[in-house]
Each structure stands twice: as C-alpha cells, then as structure tokens.
Amino acid sequence: MLSKKQAKTFFIAGSLVTFFIFIGLTIFSLSKSQDQSNSDKITESVAHGKHLWEKNNCMGCHTLMGEGAYYAPELTNVIKRRGEVYVKTLLKMKTPWAPRGRKMVAYGFSDEEANDLIAFLKWVGEINLNGFEKVDRTVSPLPKDKMKN
Amino acid sequence: MKYKSQKVAYWFFALSMLLLVLQLTYGFIMGFARLGYDGLHNIIPFNTAHTVHINTLVVWLLSGFMGAAYYIIPEESESELWSVKLAYVQLISLAVVGVAALLGYHFNIWEGRKFLEIPRELDWLVAINVILFLVILLMTIIKGKKKTTTSWVLFGGLLGAALFYLPGMISFDSQVLDSFFRWWVVHLWVEGVWELIMGGILSFLLIKLTGVDREVIEKWLYVVIGLTFLSGILGTGHHYYYIGVNKIWLIVGGIFSAMEPLAFLAMALWAVNMYRKGEKKHPNTLALYWTLGAAIVSFLGAGVLGLAHTLPQTNLYTHGTLVTAMHGHLAFWGAYAMIVLAMITYALPNLTGRKLYDHPRGRAAFWLSNIGMFTMVAAFAAAGVAQVYLERILGYEFGDVQNKIQVHFWVLIMGATILTTGLILYIIDFIKYGLPNDEAVTK
What we know:
With 149 residues, chain A is an all-alpha fold. Chain A is built from 6 helices and 2 strands; from the N terminus they run ααββαααα.
C-alpha cells in the first residue's frame, strides 16, 4: 500500500516535471519562429489602442479572442464585420446607444483615440487563432427575418 | 479553539461575508441588465458590475482563506500567532485596498483584464499585504511545536498564490502575450495553487470532523494535490487553444485538462471515504455538510462541467460563450465558496462559544444555496448551448441571439434568488453567533 512518503514523492516529482515541461513549452511557443500574431506589426498606434482597450475595461462587457464578459459581441472580427467607418462612428459617439437593447457606455473618444482602437482591433483581426477566427463569422448564412418570429 | 490569537480569523470571515453580500448585489445588477432592466446603467454600467462581481468574489475567498489560515496554523503548530497586532494591520490594509479598488471601478479606474482589474498602484499594496500575511504564518509555523503536512500544504498554496500573482503585473503591448500570462495567474490560481489551499483546509476539517488518523488523511492529501498539479499545470494549455499561440497547446492542453477531473474526483472520494471510515462523533453536522458538499460539488462544477467544454473540438465553439459562465459558477461555488463556508461553519462555534451545531436555519442555508446555484448553472447551460448553436453554428447576430435566449435569464434570476435566500440565512447565523471571546478559547 502507498506510504505517505511515496505520496509526497509523487506530488513533488509530478509537480516539478510538469512545471518544467510547461516552462519549456512556453519558451518554445513564444519563440519568434512560432509567432502567429504578426507581432512585428504592433505599431505605437496598436499599442495605444490596447492601452485604451484596457483603460476602459472593454473586456468587462465584450469578448476578444473569446475572452471577456459575454454581455456584448465578440470583437475579434469586428472591423471585417462592420467596417471601419461604422466602428469609428460609434467609438466617437457622445450619446449612449443600445444596439438590440443592450446599452454601451458613450465613450466619446477623440479621432486619434478611435483610430488607435481601430488599429488595435485590426491587428487582432489578423491573428491566426487556430480556427476560432472562422467560428466568429463575419456574415450570417441564414436570413435574419427568421429570428423575428 | 485553543489559542487566543485564533480570534483574528473571525474578522477575516466577517469581511468575507460583507464582500459576499456585495458580490450577490452586483450579480443581480448584471442579471437584470441581461433582461433589459438596466436603469443603473449611468452609475453602474455592466463592466463595472461585472468587475465588482468577480473581484469581490476573489477577495471574499482570499479573505476566507486568510481567516482559515489564521485559525488553522496556530492549532496545527500548537502555538499562538507570531504577531496578532500585525495580523490586524494586515486585515485592515486588506479591507482598505479592497474598498479602494472597488470604489475605483465606479470611476473607470482599472486595468481591464478579466480578474486582474486592480490598478497597478494597488497591485503593489496587495503584494505587500500578502507578504506580511505570509511572514506572520511562516514565523508561526517555525516557532511552533509541530510542523504538520496540513499546515505546510496550506502555507505552500498561499505562497504559490502570492508568487503567481506576479506574472499578471508584467505589461505587454501584445494582446496575445497579455492573455497568455494572465492565465498564469488566473488558471494557475484556481486550477493550481488554490487547490492546495482547498486541500489544506479540507485536510484540517477532515481530521477534526471525522477523527480519522492524521497520517492517513495527509497521505491522501499528497495524492490529491499531486494529481492536481500533474493535470493542472499543463492543463493551462486549454486557455491557449484560440488566443493566437501555436497548435501544440491543442494537444497538451486537451490531454492534461481532460485529466483535471481526476484530481477533483480523488478529492471527493477522499472526503467521502474519510467520512465513512470516521467515528461520526463530532457534533458539528453542518460543518460536515459543507465540507463534504465542497468536495462533491467541486468535482461536479470544476471537474465534470470543466470536462464538458475543455476538449479543443468542443471549446472551438463554446469559447467565449455563456457555457464558460456555467462552468465558472459551479466550479467557484463548489471548490472555493463552499470550502470557505465549511471552514466558517466549523470555526464559529469554537470562536464564539455558542454551540449552534445543527439547526433548521443552518440546514436551510445549505440546501437553498445549493439548489439556487444548481438552478443558475442549469440556466447558464441552457442559455450557453442555445447561444453556441444559434451564434456559432447558424451564424446569427450576437444581440439577436441574446434576445432569443432571454427566458433563461429569468431562470437565472430565479436561481440567484434562491441562492441569495440561502446565503442570507447563513449570514443571519453568522451574526447570531456573536463575537469571538476568550471564554470560548479556554473551553
């Protein structure tokens, strides 16, 4: 029967081995050759866009790459789906709007801020997400009027 | 209770209860907003409510863990706490930092990264607070008469939680790296080191409540936490499937996270078997309810419902939908909320001297809160599956789908009401116990 000492060894050895494998895999998958995010295209504007994304806690309602709060739409493909003009207009809007009933805070971003957020979202939209980018579809394949019933 | 300094634990538990009330309140704000009743939008928009909801969760659990540690470590080490004064300083600073962070969320002061919203300046204060806490515990263990496995595992889990807080403080310009290391905190907390904390508390409670030999209980504790790390560390990969890192994580994350339920199954079997082997003489039946409940519900919530969407083939569609909320609610409830409530239920009679061991209100609190939570989880499951099908398979607009599945949010509110009723009864009990006193200590 298993002794306490053997159980302890199992815990320590198992943890160490898997932790080292985890570190190894992390280093491998973050290495330059494995980059699938076009990290060389992170311009100052993209970085500032990310900063604004965080500063305003967009993730507190939306999801991006599937991460967030499930209250508002997934934005990975939003630029492809809606186009820049649409997104820019609503980012700059000073009055609240409620597409399909759910209210979004009226942030009233400046022109430059809106451009940076769009640059950030565009950059995200180009990341190879191992297939998730195709699940978050840009075009509805079925007629919308069916939903109204 | 044997040591006067254990009284500190009470105040951490009290802070927990206070934050729990806030968490529930903001949960309702979100639930009603989903139904279109968003009258508070101008003061508390959804992102504020969401952030307060998940941060109060983390802090009330942490405060509960800290209270548990301040109760358990002196008893296990057979020594008073190293410094009671510093423990109170730590309590007050934790409360101050917590309140400051929560207030800030109402004024757009945060770092919008799910679960790590606390602004950077406050991060440092959290770090100092936790270091102080760890020093108090470590000094108590070192100068104590006994150094038990239970106290080392509990301490190890708390130390791990502190260490794995740090990767979340690194800044990145890349959303991919940001997300990658955010999971080093969130996943390695809840599916890693927090399970050590849970294991340590569970071990202590099983030793006390079942009367089974410590050596046997602690042996299986090692097996449980061994399985946890064996599956959980590489299981982090299940968060890396679709965030822009390479496909190796689909295989590694898929295999190892599919093994994670084993750790929770082991934990449930361990608790139930120790109970069956035990003498069943301890009068605190309610504490036993919560303890066994935590072990079993964590297997269902974290284990089974986690498995339901952890394979990459499934997760491709469920990633970023209400299916995650389904798993998240029952996992946090079973594994962490219930173990904290178990610890409080065990400790209160000893701290206050009032022996309310088994009474209808206490049982109602247990059953109502669990029935409420399972109802909520069922609502999230139905809503989540419908969302996946309509949005991800048929390709309907997000907003249209949310309106279509609204009936499930009514069920959600109903479940939340039952849950809250149960927890209010629990808190009434908490208040009725009265304050901790030295008279109880000497008994």
